Amino acid sequence: MKGLIIDTIGFISDLPHSLMQSFKSTLEEVYSANILLHVRDISNPDTERQKQTVLHVLKSIGIDQKFINSNVIEVWNKIDLVPKLECPDDAIKISATQNINIDCLMERMQKKANAIFGRNMQTLTYAYDEHDARMKWLREHAGICDVDRFDYDYDKGTITIDVNLDEATTQHMNNTFAKNFKKE
Questions:
Q1: Residue 96 and residue 100: Cα distance in Å, rounded?
Q2: Which residue segments constitute the domains of the chain, with CATH numbers given?
Q3: Cβ(161)–Cβ(149) under 8 Å?
Q4: Which of 19, 76, 123, 170 could form a Cys-Cys staple with 15, CB 3.0–4.6 A?
Q5: 37, 73 in Cβ contact below 8 A?
Q6: Coil, strand or helix: which one is 150?
């Protein structure tokens, strides 16, 4: 999966009009995004107003509410500074400096991307001597750089891996490796 990270360095609500136009132009990359992470400093006493400012700016540059509802992941950062925090179910609570729940954030991003791109977990079993060619093909055609499971069966000389693939890529792979491909 490829990603583009844009740091807006915070949304400032009282910018002069000329600066606001320049600031908005830095957000043009949002139009090509499939997922947006809205990382909030939840320890800031003004965090709710900041959230509303971000949502207002997104809407003012043409991002519709449907996209916001389905493709924005709200991330509450600095939870280590705010004990006993009530968090909505759809928000991820993290502490970047303390490395708290970063794995949960990565998992949520992966699930969201899989849903958007129609990817499902595929279990692939193939001969051990095909592993390098298969992984090369998966890196080139499916953007896979790691697998979720890797099992080697010494008796059968096979490798079984789990990867997230969409239907078209799976079909392309099946055609490419048709003679030895086995899906469990």
A1: 7
A2: 17-115 (3.40.50.300), 119-183 (3.30.70)
A3: yes
A4: 19
A5: yes
A6: strand
Token pair listed for 152: 């080697």
Helix, strand, coil shares of the chain, percent, nearest 5, are 45, 20, 35
Radius of gyration of the chain (CA): 21
Closest CA to 134 of 166, 114, 160, 152: 160
Write out pLDDT tens, residues 123-175.
888 888 989 999 999 988 887 877 878 898 989 999 999 988 988 898 888 88
Query: For residue 143, is it left (φ>0), alpha (ψ between -120 and 50) or beta?
Result: left
Single pTM value for the model? 0.72
